[in-house]
């Protein structure tokens, strides 16, 4: 799974199309939940850094609020470390194109990913 953010949680919902949520330390983690996991199932989540998008604090659906701890340039990528409170830290790698948004430590932001980005496994 390479460079990934890892979490454990409990499936709280799953719609017929697979869209659902997993509770991770009280946060609703949006994901496409595999059919074999019903509500109440304990799961392990892996979310690759490059699948996490950091956006401004805009109150969009399917996002989680956090605070930028660090933004560092790593050659072709920009890595951001975001504190999500009790959910922990999430890392995001963004291509360093010179056109990406810039954030400063302490700034409120939101993180998001597509429902298909997380890998969900039995815990």
Describe this structure in words.
This protein has 123 residues and is mainly beta. The protein is built from no helices and 10 strands. The protein has a 5-stranded antiparallel sheet with strand order 3-2-1-4-10, with no helix packed on it. Strands 5-9-6-7-8 form a 5-stranded antiparallel sheet, with no helix packed on it. Strand 6 (64-74) and strand 7 form a beta hairpin. It is elongated and about 40 Å long. The two termini are 15 Å apart. The mean pLDDT is 93.
Give a short synopsis of this structure.
By secondary structure, this protein is an all-beta fold. It has strands spanning 4-14, 19-24, 27-32, 42-48, 53-56, 64-74, 77-83, 89-95, 108-112, 119-122.
Radius of gyration: 15 Å
Tally of strands: 10
Instruction: Spell out the helices and strands N to C.
Output: EEEEEEEEEE
**Major beta sheet summary:** 5 strands, antiparallel
* Rounded average pLDDT: 93
Structural class: mainly beta
Strand content: over 45%
Percent of residues in helices comes to: under 10%
- Number of distinct helices: 0
Approximate shape? elongated
Poorly predicted residue ranges: none
Distance between the termini: 15 Å
Strand order of the largest sheet: 3-2-1-4-10
């Amino acid at each position: 799974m390479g460079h990934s953010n890892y979490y454990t949680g409990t499936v709280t919902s799953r719609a017929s199309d697979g869209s659902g949520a997993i509770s991770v330390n009280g946060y609703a983690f949006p994901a496409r939940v595999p059919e074999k996991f019903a509500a109440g199932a304990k799961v392990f989540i892996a979310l690759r850094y490059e699948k996490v998008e950091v956006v401004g604090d805009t109150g969009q659906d399917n996002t989680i609020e956090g605070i930028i701890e660090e933004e560092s340039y790593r050659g072709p990528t920009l890595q951001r470390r975001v504190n999500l409170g009790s959910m922990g830290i999430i890392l995001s790698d963004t291509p360093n194109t010179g056109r990406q948004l810039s954030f400063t430590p302490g700034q409120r932001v939101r993180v998001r990913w597509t429902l298909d980005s997380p890998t969900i496994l039995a815990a």
